[in-house]
């Protein structure tokens, strides 16, 4: 499979180049030249086989079938259950992986692809990523212990949750956690400069692990297939709590290749650029505002252009396949409390936005059914205990983590401070 840049469309790369590069030089985003279609018979296969069949056309010759199958197997080391909360609403629980968020799937897949490429090319790779919480943890866990790859994570001091911080800082070894005295935006600006730095590039392959990278984005299709396989009755409506829109774009890609989904709901918080675009036709970028569902606090979602590409390539009408809404923090809080009381189910703030969006939608459209993506475990967010008025039991792996030693390096928000550490590391 070849990939083109959404800016300069004549700029092409194969899977390996696109993964190692992350983002094209023209600041566009990579997109496959064609959308594969699959045979419905795939749905009766075991999960790992489904994943392999879904991803193989995208990888093409870049990784032979045997190692690719092994990468799929290692990626999918945990379950993806759809839990029914009411007769019409299910929760697709994506938090059973090592860092309890859906980003584990993409991070594990990408880390193993990079390991394969590093071994083939015999060089070192440095992965640089800025995080507001979940991305860094998934990337740290996915890449920990992967040979020939170092991971540098920039996170804003004091602005990630207690458990997210543990997930970032308790690995050590090839995972370098830089605690930046600044905001997430500072971290992101630093990451961008480091990724372009010539001195670092002279010593190693340098790439990012955000959802722009196709090796993180494409495997997010897997759990849409697994969930639809579990779903009984007519094609579901799927509500996706959205920030950078990687998750929703992956679901839409699965639909475009034949997965039976009725429609998607883009469930946004107060950061509602896409919601306003669908209503008014105007795409107006705004600075992000902080909300309870902070992994969705994105002012200019980087994957939205992929949604436009899919719709265009598959001849879909955007309004037919995606409806959207914006849920306030008050509604999020109220939803978490109500779902806890009525169904005995603890939502995290992101899942709560998606639940609320879906239940509002079903009220207008009785007879429809669907599920929402519960994108992270509620224990990861410090706000949940306050909102529900009681503490949440820590799962066993989290208890073990609290006993480990925290290792991070505090730095000011200056790119050179991070650069020195990376260059020293590369020797
Ligand atoms: C990253 C994240 C999201 C947003 O996903 P996008 O693919 O950026 O739209 C939603 N919920 C949680 C818990 C996340 O970590």
Structure commentary:
- There is one protein chain.
- This protein is α/β, with parallel strands linked by helices and 427 residues long.
- Helices cover 44% and strands 16% of the residues.
- The protein has 19 helices and 14 strands.
- The chain has helices at 15-21, 47-59, 65-75, 103-121, 134-143, 162-169, 184-195, 198-201, 214-217, 222-230, 246-256, 273-280, 304-313, 318-321, 329-343, 349-364, 383-388, 396-402, 415-426; strands at residues 2-5, 12-14, 30-32, 82-84, 89-93, 125-130, 149-156, 175-181, 205-208, 237-241, 263-268, 322-326, 370-374, 409-412.
- The strands form three sheets. Strands 4-5-13-10-11-12 form a six-stranded mixed beta sheet, sandwiched between helices.
- The mean pLDDT is 94.
- The chain binds pyridoxal-5'-phosphate (PLP).
- Bound heterogens, unique: pyridoxal-5'-phosphate
Say how many strands there are. 14
| Shape assignment | globular
Question: Regarding quaternary structure, how should these chains be classified?
Answer: single chain
Poorly predicted spans: none
Main sheet, how many strands, which sense, barrel? 6 strands, mixed
Given helix and strand content, the structural type is alpha/beta
Please state the average pLDDT score.
94
Rg calc: 20 Å
Number of helices: 19
Major sheet: arrangement of strands: 4-5-13-10-11-12
Distance between the termini: 36 Å
Q: What is the percent of helical residues?
A: 40-55%
Task: Work out the strand percent.
Answer: 15-25%
């Amino acid at each position: 499979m070849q990939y083109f840049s959404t800016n300069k469309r004549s700029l092409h790369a194969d899977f390996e180049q696109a993964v190692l590069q992350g983002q094209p030089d023209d600041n566009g985003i990579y997109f496959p030249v064609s959308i594969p279609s699959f045979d419905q018979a795939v749905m009766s296969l075991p999960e790992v086989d489904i994943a392999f069949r879904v991803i193989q056309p995208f990888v093409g010759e870049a990784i032979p079938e045997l190692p690719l199958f092994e990468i799929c197997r290692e990626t999918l080391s945990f379950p993806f259950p759809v839990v029914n909360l009411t007769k019409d609403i299910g929760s697709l629980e994506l938090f059973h992986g090592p860092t309890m968020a859906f980003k584990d799937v993409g991070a594990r897949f990408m880390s193993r692809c990079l390991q394969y490429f590093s071994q083939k090319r015999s060089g070192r790779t440095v992965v640089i990523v800025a995080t507001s919480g979940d991305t860094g943890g998934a990337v740290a866990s996915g890449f920990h212990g992967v040979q020939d790859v170092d991971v540098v994570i920039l996170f804003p001091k004091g602005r990630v949750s207690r458990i997210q911080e543990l997930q970032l800082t308790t690995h050590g070894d090839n995972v370098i956690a830089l605690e930046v005295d600044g905001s997430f935006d500072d971290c992101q600006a630093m990451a961008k400069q480091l990724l372009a730095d010539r001195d670092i590039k002279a010593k190693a392959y340098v790439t990012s692990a955000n959802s722009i990278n196709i090796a993180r984005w494409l495997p997010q299709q897997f759990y849409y297939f697994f969930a639809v396989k579990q779903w009984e009755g007519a094609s579901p409506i799927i509500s996706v709590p959205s920030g950078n829109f990687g998750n929703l774009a992956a679901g839409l890609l699965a639909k475009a290749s034949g997965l039976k989904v009725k429609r998607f709901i883009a469930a946004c918080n107060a950061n509602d650029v896409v919601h306003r675009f669908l209503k008014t036709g105007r795409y107006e970028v705004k600075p992000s505002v902080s909300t309870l569902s902070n992994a969705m606090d994105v002012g200019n979602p980087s994957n939205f252009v992929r949604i436009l590409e899919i719709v265009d390539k598959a001849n879909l009408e955007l309004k037919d396949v995606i409806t959207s809404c914006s849920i306030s923090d008050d509604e999020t809080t109220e939803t978490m409390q109500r779902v806890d009381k009525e169904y005995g189910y603890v939502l995290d703030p992101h899942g709560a936005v998606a639940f609320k969006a879906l239940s509002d939608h079903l009220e207008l459209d009785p007879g429809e059914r669907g599920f929402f993506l519960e994108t992270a475990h509620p224990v990861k967010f410090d706000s949940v205990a306050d909102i529900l008025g009681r503490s949440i039991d820590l799962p066993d792996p989290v208890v073990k983590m609290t006993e480990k030693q925290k290792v991070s390096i505090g730095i000011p928000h200056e790119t050179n401070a991070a650069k020195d550490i990376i260059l020293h590391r590369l020797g």
